[in-house]
Structures are given as C-alpha cells and as structure tokens.
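ugh finaly. both done.
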Amino acid sequence: MLAFAATKGAKQPKLRKIMTNGRHSLGAQLQAVAFAWLLFVHAPQALAQRLAGSTAAEAKLSIDGSFLLVPILTDMARRFEGFNPGIRIDVRSSGTGKGLADLRSGVSDIAMAPRALRESERDLFAFPIARDGVAVIVNTANPIKAISSSQLTDVLIGRITNWTALDGPDAPVKLAWRQGQGSAEFILEHLKLRRAQIGPHTAIVTNEDAIKFVANTPDGVALASVGLSERSARERTPIKLLAYNGFPAASRTIQNHVYSLSRPLTLITRRPPEGVQKQFIDFAMSKKVIDLQLKYGFVPYEE
C-alpha cells in the first residue's frame, strides 16, 4: 500500500501539471477573445477621440481681404504659428470687397479691411489692430505741397483738369483711381461722393500700383497708404505726400489724431470670435506685434 501510494503520488504531480497547463491555455484563449471583443467595441470611440485630437492639433484659420494688410497679417500669422505649433493660418489678398463677401459666405474666417465698418456692415464684428491714413501723392517733380478737401473733390470729379488751378505746372491732371478698394471707399465716404462721380482716370488696384503710377507720371496724382508712401519716399521713390487741410500726411499726425484722412486697420468676423479665431485676434491686438506695426509704417491703435 505504501509502495502503491508512493507510486501513485509520484504520478500525481504530472497529472496536475497537465491539467494546470490546460487551464492556462484555456484562460489565455478566453483572455485573447475578451481583449479582441474590447477592441471591437471600443476601437471606434478611441479612433474618434484620436481624430478629434488630430483636428484640434491641426486647426486652420483663413483670412482674406485688403491688399494693404496682407504683408503685416502674414508676419503676424507666422509669429502666431510659432507660438502655437500645429495651427495653420492662410492669408490671402482678394481686396476689401471680396474679402468681406467671402467672410459673409463662410469661405473665410476673418476679413481684413483698411477702414471702419460702414453703416450697412453693422451686423459684423470689427477689431481694430492699428491705424494708417490715406495720402494724396504726387510726383516729386510737381511743386505743389498741399491740398484741401474741396480741391481734392474737384480733382476727383474732373472739375480741376490742370495743375495751374492748384498753383502747379501748366500740365493736365492725370488721376489714378482704385475702384472697389477700401481706401477708395473711405475717401468717397469722407468726401460724400459716389463712385459714378469720379472723373477720367487710369484704373489701378493696389497701393503699390498707385505709388508706381505717380513715380512714373510727373503729372500724376493718386491715393495710397500713408505708411507705405512714407516708406517708399524714404527709399527714394520719386513721390511726395501732400499735406491735407493744413496737416502733413504722416504717421505722427495720425498718432496725434489731427490728420483727418486717418482710418483704422480692421479685422472683421461674422460672429463674436471664439477658439483659434479669438486667440489670433487677441494676439493681433496685443503688444506682441507692435514691432510689426512700426515695421510697416502703421500706428499702434490706442483708444
């Protein structure tokens, strides 16, 4: 009995080992099935969460509008992206009118305009980021130095056709006019004129076009950004900015609020901004971009 028990006891561990191995194998299989089921149930939710995180990390912002604001907004966008990796800001130049139309239709998130909102645009939300002005520019060969609002009106509507009426040379006035742009709209509103009243002119599009036209036309006159015109004059482009209603067209007179053709440079949204849209607008209105405002000849907006 003892020998049998010993023999039986000797075989028992082997039997238990076999049975234990079987239980382990079955348990592993059950665990694998359970894990696969969990993956099947929860994978879509996890994938959705990962995609949501990816979308947030790759947020995009579309800005469109004023030709004048494109260079400074591009610099602001690149700086903002540097502070916020994963955010991409697209800045396009379609002109003020097209930029506002794209904003209303939802094509863009923010519009740029070189002016305040008009009465017909009061449903939108405006955020001034700097100040600039509109300058009346002529060629340096033209001896006149100043112009009044009534004289500018007469030039624009074609009532003054020769520079002698402004104590200038005996030469025809050659006007370049920017149709449909923010600066043109601002001047029309300021002088209470209609587009149809503008006299014979050469059609141009951008501030750069205006400066180039006047630089190449001794008898030419056009309207352009004060900041851009000042920079061009310092770079020896043959243009000069006329004083308007007794005050020089200059950044300092804009800053002092005595130059009457000054205007805000504005970012515009359809609704109160939120998310990345709000973050960028707050950034564009902050002291973190004052150096960029000065770089482009604009005046920090302080009101």
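ok and the 2nd:
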Amino acid sequence: MWLRSIVLYIHILAAIFWVGEMLFLSTVVRPYSRRLEPRERTELFTALGQHSRPWAWGAMVVLVVTGLLNVTLAGIPLTSLVDPHFYRTPLGATLDLKVLLVIAMIAVALWHDSLVGTRAARLRGRLADHPKDPALTAAVAHTRRMASWLGRMALLLALVVVFLAVHLALYL
C-alpha cells in the first residue's frame, strides 16, 4: 500500500510540474511578454525554454514510468494492455483514451520543442544578419504564432489527460 501511495504521489508531483509549467508560461509569462519588443519576447521564451526543457521532459519521463507502475500496482497486469477485451471495460476505455492523449501531447510537445524551436533559432540567426528582410520577418512571426498555438494545444491535451486521470481514479 505504501509503495502504491509513493508511486502515485511522485506521479502527481510530476504532473503538477508538467502542467504547472505550461500554465505559468501561458497565464503569466505570455501576457507579460506582450509588453516587450518582439526580439526581447523571443529571447525571454528562448531562455525560459532552454532552462525548463530538461525539467519538463524529465517530468514526462517520470510520468510515463510511474504511470506504468501505477497500472501494475493497481492490480492490472501489463498483459491486459494488449488484450482488446480490456478496452471494452470502462476502466480500459478510459485508460486507452488517456494513453492516446498522452502520446498526442508528447508529439505536440516534441513538435513545439524540436522542430519549431530549431526553425525559430535558425530564422532568428538569419534575421539578425538581414534585419530588413520582409520574408524573414514574416517567417519569424509565423514560427512564433505556430509555437504559441502548439503550446496551447499541448496545455489543452495535458488538462484533458489530468481529467482522465481523475476519472481513472474512480475505477481503481
């Protein structure tokens, strides 16, 4: 019983960190950053992202590991996860949806952090060399909007995943 409580506690702490970081960025940093010049705003988000990225992805690894442990400690054999009949139960259907949304959330976060972040850094470097280039300016603005929308999408997915986690607790 203690082990299950400890694993669940660690899982919840990691979720608090993951979701809390996204909520902080979207509700505090983003509105504040609107007062800044575009270059300063980009520098702020770049610095925050570089500092928080290892912590956020570390939290995600902890969530995946403790999520699997939670399933096992709740008495659900991992073999059930490959049994189609399991997913016809309310518990299985909810767990299935949660896992699918976690995968989607990770994919969106990877897209945000890796592809869009890398493109944004490359564009900012080119824009520094050619500050009057309207195509580069437009590309930087487009990339910034894409990053913002991907961040919102990841947050929305995370909030739904948290809701499903609460819903799962009703079955366990």
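summary for the 2nd one i guess: The radius of gyration is 19 Å.
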